[in-house]
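assembly run, all chains below
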Amino acid sequence: MDEILNLPIYEVAGCEFDCSCGRHHVFPVEGISVGKNAIKDLVKFAAPYKEQKILVVFDNNTYKVAGRKAVELLKENGFEHIKELLFETGNDILIPDETTLGRILIELDQDCGLVIAVGSGVINDSCKYVTAKTGKPFIIVATAPSMDGYVSAGAPIFSQGFKLSPQAHLPIAVIGDTDILSTAPDDMIAAGFGDIVGKITAIADWDVAVKVKNEYRCDTCVTLVNRALDKVFRNAEGLQKRDGEALSALMEALILTGTAMALADVSRPASGAEHMIAHCWEMDEIKRGLNPIHHGTQVGIATPVVARIFEHLHDDLPEGTAELCPPHEEIEELLRRGGTITDPKEIGISRELFHYSLLNSHDIRPRYSVLRYAKDLGRLEEIADKITEEYYGKE
Ligand SMILES: [Zn+2]
Ligand SMILES: [Zn+2]
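ok done. output:
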């Protein structure tokens, strides 16, 4: 029972076990490799498709840091049917919209057996979406530890200017080579760290839903996430120094929180009120035609905001919940240690938007959160006013 807690990350792949939560969990990702020279495992993970056509997708940047190496490795090892798709993005940001998804679909031949996505957020999400629609397996070679979507069935995409989050599917394998990850820009590493810090309030938020709404919870998944977080937080300073162990720990945590989501079959272990608030900010940036700020950066900033909500609600919380959320000062200190931003003003969140997001994020998703809890108690407005003042001063 709960064997997953005793497994090293590469053995988590493909595991199946009876859990103390009463469910039988299955984790369908077949291969995980994180660490120095992990990219060599691409040959092993892609081996079942060796005789078929393989489409490798990258952009200018990810080609340089990992795409070229991936293609070389496959060719050296006798893979003969490789087709390359390069997105010439220049300095533009690739967006997972009709153009990007359509391009992949056009290049994806019917007899293609496997897609290898070389990149981070956008290339991963785009390949995930198209392969889910076409029923083909895909492998992700990560180029930045920037978000937790590598092992997540959801694929955020854009259609006619709107952001959608349709269900897609999981990759068959994920590769996080620390030599490649260490070439990622500072802000992307900081964003991955921010996304991980967000799990603190996600877990506390889940607890509220379990206690108030009797929602399902898997303690094994919670333990899995918490252990991964501890490992990252112990060496948060190492991230901006590109320390291999710190990067490995971050990548593992991003994968393991995805694993916990897949096992529990809900996004609860990875996303709570902090994600809802960050989503509200992101929607506003899209509406204003701005380039969205990294998801994890916004989630990181929203985390101590949610911690403050827990603090204001302290005496009204269900028994044992308050203890799950550390003081906001502690979370802010943690964010700084990992090199990420703590102040919403620094990413252009206006006082009005901030206040609006506290009042309205509770119904962004049909799920129970500490925001809804505060609203049901009739305290959301008063708390939103106070926290806005804590960040932006008196009006
Ligand atoms: Zn996230
Ligand atoms: Zn379980």
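The first strand starts at residue 16 and ends at 18.

The radius of gyration is 21 Å.

not gonna interpret more than that til we talk
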